[in-house]
Amino acid sequence: MARGNGRMQIFLDDTDYRHFLNLLRETVEDSEIECWNYCVMPNHYHTTLRPSQPNLSDALKCLNSDYAKWWNFRHGRVGHAFQGRFKDQIVQCDRYLLALSRYIALNPVRAGLTKRPEQWPWSSYATIAGLSSEPTFVDVEPTLRQFGEGDRHTLQARFQEFVEASDALTDTRIRSSARILGDKEFRRSIQGRDRGSDTCLTPL
Asked: Is the confidence at residue 96, as pLDDT, over 90?
């Protein structure tokens, strides 16, 4: 994730949101990075990414830099648009990925911007839930696979039910400041070595 400098708003209108998402699409496609979900909020964004090469840092640096330059020019601003380097966390798939997916989908609801996650147009939730066919650069399969066997419609229904569960808004497991989010065995396997192919990269 990355936040506006001093928590300032860096997405002011639809044009800002659309331009950032176009840059995100170009970034993940050019850098061969899987984008599993995202949510762009008025002063920050979240995304779950899985790189195929050790290029995530460079890719996100370019993404944030390109958007900041464009945004400053468009709005007649100078200086930093983002608050330092992006933040990331290595996340174990299975229940940790599920908690993360729900946390990201509910960001606009938690912030009081919408009543339901699919109402926020700058999120991938509707795409994963099968309520929209856009954007096409989001790989929905890794999330849906976490819900077991079944056809896509069944898995999407399970995903929606999970996100809308009664305890969803009070789920705070993703708020941990830990560098690695997973069980003890997973944390031990990651510590002291490079990120493995079975990890998802996501916000703190």
From this structure: no
